Amino acid sequence: MTVSARGTDPDAPIETPMPALPTTVAETKARLAAGGYLASEALATSVYLALTLERPLLLEGEAGVGKTEIAKVLAAILARPLVRLQCYEGLGLAEAAYEWNYARQLLHIRAAQAAGSGLSVADLERDIYAEGYLVERPLLKALRLAAAGTPPVLLIDELDRADEPFEAFLLELLGDCQMTVPELGTISAGRPPITILTSNRTREVHDAVRRRCFYHWVDFPGARREAAILKLKVPEAAPELTRQVVAFVQALRSMDLYKNPGLAETINWAQALTSLDCVALDPARVDATLGTLLKYQDDIARIRGSEAARLLEEVRSKARAAEFAAEAG
Ligand SMILES: Nc1ncnc2c1ncn2[C@@H]1O[C@H](COP(=O)(O)OP(=O)(O)OP(=O)(O)O)[C@@H](O)[C@H]1O
Ligand SMILES: [Mg+2]
User: Fold this and answer.
1) Whole-model pTM?
2) 4 with 12: CB under 8 angstroms?
3) pLDDT of 92-121, one tens digit each?
4) Residue 120 sits in which domain range?
């Protein structure tokens, strides 16, 4: 049986005017940038293809590189609702997709009995296993919105935190844009939600999920893009400070630390330094603010002091060399 997925409100609008999807990679990149997200050419291409071919996009990458942010920005620039499913150990169907409203079902049965309706058990079962008795959770909500003509952005965040069997629940939704509720039938939507899945690779996501998605590895940005992102996110930072912060963080990422700083940390560091009225890095300020950048004591102990001073000197001499080359050229 296939049932309508318009939700419980029959008067819900079917069509809501929404901005059209981008028609080129360049337009995708420009609209993301207008929404505050500076994507690499490769990521903009993956997003464009996922939007155009209506396929889920699986994003993997280190912490803080912008995996979750892209779903938020897509929802904003395309004027779609954002439906977010945060995954965690023990996440099940009842929290992710739907749950029967047992209290309401029981009340219905009691009311029918009290009224002496004489309904058979089969009639009662048919009554209480109707869509109105479903409590919707993010996956069902996304499907219903899509069926109502407003395909949302569905963010399935940190899928690697959920237990492996949970992924099996997703296959029908990712592959066929539908969900089967055994007591009710199959709920389907014509146009799929714009689906973004993220993983930090604390475990491998199953092949069956990967096959149903496009895939993109979100890398740390290069110095130029990181500087542009800082300018956008911390415009109050002094230009010299922005340059030095980016060069310092880029150097840190080549040092085989236990946890490399992500973009979120770069932004936090620049904000912290700016709020301390820093206009350029100095060894004392670097040491005092390392906790906004590095989150493990082993990494902090390794960098603090002489190593930070050495990195800072390296950053300054590279900047001097670049200035000299620019003047000479
Ligand atoms: N390309 C980008 N353009 C602009 N801002 C970005 C970009 N990438 C990341 N950011 C900024 O970095 C912050 C961290 O990004 P986000 O939370 O999406 O990282 P993540 O990859 O989901 O991290 P985690 O794995 O820890 O959840 C965001 O709040 C956003 O401000
Ligand atoms: Mg995230």
Assistant:
1) 0.89
2) no
3) 999 999 999 999 988 888 888 888 777 777
4) 101-136
